[in-house]
Queue: 2 jobs
Job 1
Amino acid sequence: MNVSSAVVRVHGLVKQHGRGQGRVRAVDDVDLEVPEGQMLAVMGPSGCGKSTLLHLLGGLERPSDGEVWLAGQRIDTLSERALARLRRRSVGFVFQAFHLVEELSAAENVELPALLAGRSRRQARRRASLLLERVGLTDRARHLPSQLSGGQRQRVAVARALVNDPLVVLADEPTGNLDSAATLDVLRIFEELRSVGQTFVIVTHDERVAATADRLISMRDGMFVDDTRLAGTGTGRLGDLIGLED
Amino acid sequence: MGSIVLIVRLVLADVRRHKVQAAMLLLAVTVATATMALGLSLRGVSEALYEQTRAATAGPDVVALSGDAGPAATSALASLADDPEVVAHHGPYRIVYADLTTRDSTSSPVVVHGFAETPGAVNRPLVTSGHWVRPGGTVLERGFATALGVGVGDHVTIAGRSYPVVGIAVTAATSIYPWAAQIGPGGGPSDSSGLAWMTRSDARTLASSHDLPVTLALDLKLRDPAATEAFLDADRASTVTNLRSWQFTAEQDMVILKNSQPILVVGSWLLSFLAVTGVAALAAGRAVEQTRRAGLLKAVGATPGLIATALLTEYLALALAGDALGLGIARLTVPAIASPTASRIGDAAGPGGATVATATVLAVAVAVLSTLRPTLRAMRTATVTALTATARRPRHRPWLTALSALLPTPLLLGLRLTARRPGRAVLQACSTATTVIAIVALLTFYAQPTRGYGPDGSSALPNLRDVHDRRLLLAVTVLLIALAVVNTITLTWTTAIEARANMAIARTLGATPGQISAGLSSAQLLPSLPGAVIGVPLGVGLLSLFAAGNPAEPPSSWLLGGVLATLLATAALTALPARLAARRSVAQALSGETA
């Protein structure tokens, strides 16, 4: 693989929790490269370290050892402030629990990272409208998160993750709280984004979700135990393939 | 630009979502800043009212008072009028000492000034209703008339003779009611007296017909009104009892406000303290939610500085709005508080620059002190930890667990809840202590003997200063109690919300809703008890710092009653939120915690 085309690259990555005898290696000496446009799924049992890996890739946590590079820039040595700036421009997060600001409307939630990135209010609004249309929520733009279903909330979260055209979208169990229909909606959006070259790292428990990826890494006890290239899946086959067609 | 829009949006959305908290902060800061601004504005307003009265009445620069009405005194006063520094004068005129009785038999000492029917260039009392003196009629000073409840057209009896009240007027030549006499007969000390004017001949007749004490006065206008000290130092008044500058009279106006200033300023400190404890309790109750929100903002790229700005901006904006409201209220109420006698006229200016700055510093301090800790916590907590924030795990205290096991269930629950959140317990204790301090001050004030303004100190006319001080202290105490009530309810509710999972577990183990409710009440009462006990000596101590002389102590039974009433009120106030919290479904509480 051409190193220069890797959006995400980690080397010798270690993350330890606790001290003394209670010390646990959540991520244990991991190497990884994710090229541009790839959809990578990471699977493994609960507590295997896959969410910690995602947090390390996005600069939400600092590694105990090793290096994390994002688009050729080493990020594990950056200050908290610099990491925040990097996240707002280069990383889009999608969480299992959505993590929307409850007192802001769907559109305002989507605008949030754009405003943080210094865009004008008008630019942020235009971009949010575009993305909400893309995820099929134009008519819900003014609704508060509490007025949306779980699937709709996650679609808002996806739109928010994309508002600054990030280099990579990091999704932590994005369908973990969704029913089948809502899961299919979210995966269709992911598939559309992949088709235009968006890079993804998705942590999931769900094999059906993992099956939509280009590449699947299995984790156990903080280590990669398998790294498999999957056959590409077209949007039209998505539902059939993962058994979610409504 | 985007960050500013975002901060404004987050602040507005959060205020909309937490209206009660916003209203509480607004109210607390408004009350505290209004009280402080009032306290700090009194002197300025009093001086401004004196200045305006002096300008409107051609007030003298110096008043010469002689305790003797004989030829020597007259001659000495006349020589003062010829002094090269004096550019105009009025008098000498008689001051007759008598008693005045109204139609409803209210009596008061009065000094009667004998004036010309046409006022001169110096000391022209301003008639505010009716007209100036004419033979057979009297004009009453406005502060005196207000205290007597007398108006134009009424009749008053002075030294046994009835006079119609033909006018009401104000003057800057004398101190405000009830210190119009300035000196007593023979130059001795004076009683609390009102002021009346008559024609010169009526005053002479009044004095001679009843052989009443008489002194003389002369009003002087100087070439340089600011140079009164130099004039007084020149020892021109060897045979004159007293020379009083206009600055001295202006300063005398503050005597009636001597206690008002400490009542308001110290009251504002206590109100600010309660505001901080109340808002801090609310902020602590929302700490988990705020930390989660901070984590979410960090995850999407907000810097720690922006998060701190967003959190503090909300509280600062509300505090500054409260500050503006408080200053507005102070502006509206200060004339009534700074001039309780009606002896002065004019429009009181608003709080001065220094007062505005001090009140604003107070408001900002309340906002920052009450939110600093949760803001720092939100800033410092790692993003991933913040996203999954839960209430902080209380420290394990084995000795307390063992001790509480010996107690009845409500006390067991109460003690353990108190121990879970020691910071919250300290806030409750401080809130109770502050309330008791105010109650002790109020009781001590009411325990002081009061001397009325009637003849020989009778209470026919109430002591205006005492009445004014008691009203102010009562108002401040009521405000303090109101804030303490809000604090107690807030603390109980936040304790109940944070402890809902534990209380639900206790319910699954067999505790009844009544025991849970009593436990939550006990958790507030336990810290209230030491707070109330400490409040008594703190109240006495605080009062001794500001009270003149040795104030009489209130009976112990009053203090004990105050403490018990505070504790009973706390128990009653905690009952409602505790009962509401105890009624929550166990299953709902348990699933809510695990969600």
Job 2
Amino acid sequence: MKLELGYFNVKDVVFGDTTRYENGVLTVSKKELSELVLEDQRIKDVDFDVARPGEEVRIIPVKDVIEPRVKVTGGTIFPGFLGKPTTVGEGRTHVLKGMAVVTCGRIVGFQEGIIDMSGPGAEYTPFSKLVNLVVVANPVEGLSQHEHEEALRIAGLKVAAYVAGCVKEKEPEEIKVYETKPLPQALKEYPDLPKVAYVYQLQSQGLLHDTYVYGVDAKKIIPTLIYPTELMDGAIVSGNCVSACDKNPTYVHQNNPVVEELYRRHGKDINFVGIIITNENVTLADKERSSDYTAKLAEYLGLDGVIITEEGFGNPDTDLIMNCRKIEEKGIKTVLITDEYAGRDGASQSLADADPKADAVVTAGNANEVIVLPPMKKVIGLVDTAAVIAGGSQKALREDGSIEIELQAITGATSEVGFTRLSAVTL
Amino acid sequence: MGKFRVVHYINQFFAGLGGEEKADLPPQDKEGPVGPGTAFNAAFAGEAEIVGTVICGDSYFNEHQEEAKADILERIKKYNPDLVVAGPAFNAGRYGMACGGVCKAVKETLNIPAVTGMFKENPGVEVYKKDVYIVETAGSAAGMREAVPKMAKLALKLAKGEALGTPSEEGYIPRGIRKNVFVEEYGAKRAVDMLVKKLKGEPYTTEYPMPDFDRVPPAPAVKDLSKATVALVTSGGIVPKGNPDKIEASSASRFGKYDLEGVDYLTPEKFQTAHGGYDPTYANQDPNRVLPVDVMRELEREGVIGKLHRYYYATVGNGTSVASAKKFAQEIAKELIADGVQAVILTST
């Protein structure tokens, strides 16, 4: 499967009468976008704002971050949500690079995040480096949390696809090609290189901790195979209300750095043959089934090594360790990426599970570490939610407008797909 | 600035007062350096000076810990030091425990830095490494020449308030404190680099060495449940409406104890969840789903259990560190035992 990504490097986003892209500037029409979002009768009101790198702006509470992409040929972006769930990952896709759509608005319940565009918080979130088109949408009264979450999720996807639509017919500034071949061909091409796949754990603890694959709730999948390029076309979409620091926003599914890195080494040190997606359900029976199945697929593909990534913490630590142990028992080498909950003082045990076979682990840092975010000139969203989001506390919001909070509350701060340069050492 | 004033703690053997037969010697002190103190003074190279030495027999210290510690602290205080150095204890177990205990007490009560040195298998390491900087030494006093300059260097750095490097750079035994650092490469690249090395059989360093996981064997079954008092304890965050103790939605710093007297089942008017790690809809609709008071009352009426304990305990498990959870559990268990509870049902989410 071969996908061409055509990039348009967005330098700025401004508001105007129509939605268009010229010379690195994306102009968006608030009126068009409002009409689009308000098509959904579950949404009462919506407004839009732009936050640029370096500005004294705080976005809170952040639900999802999405990269605007449009399919030029070969299906629809976000299949299963914005179009039929037909296979994507082939043909041409155009990308508005350097920007994102960020969904915000009244909190759904808990576990939403903060993006600071400057100051110490900006160092931790990878999304402070993007020009962010923020969608601030609020639901109608009496809407259940589940519908509220779904309405916001779909609004974000629609806005991202809509703004990308204006570059569908344009000539991209840069083109990059990604290709993964069917297994027999891939094996024939590099017979001497170790066969490597990516075991991608998708958050599926349920109760608003969900991920979707072609529109299907990942709780209900059996571990399966997917081409890396399918991710790039939005085959995997994040649900909201997953702890902000180590949730994989939709942007991260579209731009998974493990996939990028495995492609970079493909044909040199490794033969990157594809991705096994699996879930992180809460019952032991589900965990046993999924980890058995994942190990079986790894064996079936004749793999030599895998990278396993986690999403979330605590309960999914057991999925990470089970996958590691069972895959290692098949004689396949593993490297894990996780983050840590070692307490505010860093003195506690970091994971809820452990196994001596997990001898190659990359950490994205201790999410309990506390940071003070200084007051910002402008807040997009609702700052009082700092008291209730995960990582916050009653004392989080201080009188001078600063926020004392755990890294946990910062969107993407301890990305478990290795999207940041944060790590941790033992002192 | 003048020289840092140092007090050195050593045992009877290194003070030249005798071996095992003198191990029950109570604390005493002398002005200036004694035994290995001279080598430390040389290593301080004029930046610090041992002004007093406190000596205690190893058996005495370990058999009279509280008294000995108080006495030793008084003697240390008398010299008005900026810094305390203890040992090195090498692989001497009781001496290691004494050095660790003295350093911890100095840090906590006198609020000045303290450094000791031990062999990595000294039992004092396991007990004190979290609280005290312990320089890694050889297993016997033959390693004195090597240990002293390392300990002196670290002690001076601490006295000056300089930032410390990693344990391997500074020569101390890792304290087990996890600290965030920004590194050169992003995580995904580090992971793929590590996998390529692992596949080639080349050496690599894991960023998170697996801990010795604390697996707790289940307690034996209660012999006669019909006479037992059973308590409910939950990490699912069920609290009286309004969350009176303000238990945090994540990373809880406390637990609550709540009365179930006269409560036949939990109603959404009076109870809710404080947990921020799961969708609260179903727990708030019917809090018995997380804290099964309704079923426990039925079992009580049917005589399956003796009775439900009057109080239940609740905290939030979401992102709460294992150390905090352990502390809560110890406090809760103490109260439950004192209240004559024989069994506990733990519910999580």
